[in-house]
Specification:
alpha/beta; seven-stranded mixed beta sheet; five-stranded parallel beta sheet; 12 helices; 16 strands
Length: 384
Amino acid sequence: MGFAPGRAFTRREAARVSVGDIAALALADGMTLTPEQERTASVLSGTGKLSGTGKLSGMGKPTGTGNLYIVGPPGTGKTAVVDWWVRACAAAGRPRVLRRHLHGFFADLHRQIDQCGGWEAGLDAATSRSGRRYDVVCLDEFTVHDPADGVFVDRLLRTLAARATTIVVTSNRQPAELMPNPLFHTGFEPTIELISAMFSVVVVGGDDLRPAAGRTRGFGSGTWNTGTWSMGVRADGGPARAVRPGSQEFLVREGMDGSVRIDFADLCGRPTNTADYLWLARTYTAVTVTGIGTQSDLGEAALARWAVLLDVMHDADVRVDVWATCRRSEMAAALVATLPDAARAVSRMGAWRDVDPADGDTAVRDRYCEGSLLTGISADGDLY
């Protein structure tokens, strides 16, 4: 079966979304589109142009907004520009776009397959709303390392293509770089060929924008505190209670403001998974992780879980504060030395502020007081 680079929207489905609409939403969020984001926005809106090789360029025919594979280094604003486009489409009323992080989409799809009794019905439930299928499925952080996931991805893409559903993905890896483990890469090459046939590739370059963002709430407002949890903390949260959102039970201490404190050994040192982290993101407004040790204490499995946790919390825009005896740079070095996609996790941590209570920086430890145990609340009720 052959695949075109992607089905253009019909006139009935066509989004009345312009680059100006996307730029206006960026401005409302306090951001200005970078030149790379503006070119990507033009492709998403159907007015940009692709070269004959499917790469974004200043020459060529209008894209018609078929399947798009948006790729670039971490932090260059791929997810942000896609999010603004999705919001603009929602405001315009069409096309109907389902936008999910790949981890969350797979978790939901597995659940729907179990509940609906099969692949077709499960995929229908995961990609429909009010009985109508979405026109576009948009998947963020498209990456594949596990052979079982590779089989799942292949079947998903083929089924969506057969249904004439447009697909937009963002990734830090070119299609040929997916499934990087040489033991499994050859077996995944037919899927890479499928992706190359189905998608037009849009490359988004530029600098990592996250460290400069300076956010005051959400994921980007988190901190990395070098020290132990007890340093200067006057309140230790509520009593510990055991929770079991999935297959693993772990202890949490809940704050009065909807936040939670969890030890790193419970969260990442045991076989927790994406479903556990999605539950945390749905349940709490902020997560404090304590007990991260030295670089030599960080095993490969724990680091891999940490990277997935960061993906989930970033996607849900949940604040994360860390208390560790190692510095953030040491954690970054451990990630780079261990994981093939470490750059994304390192970039995510780059949005946080470093705090060393031993140097007299009390901004974080002074937040932990009666009535607001795990994150601060300002006089006007905002998290800080």
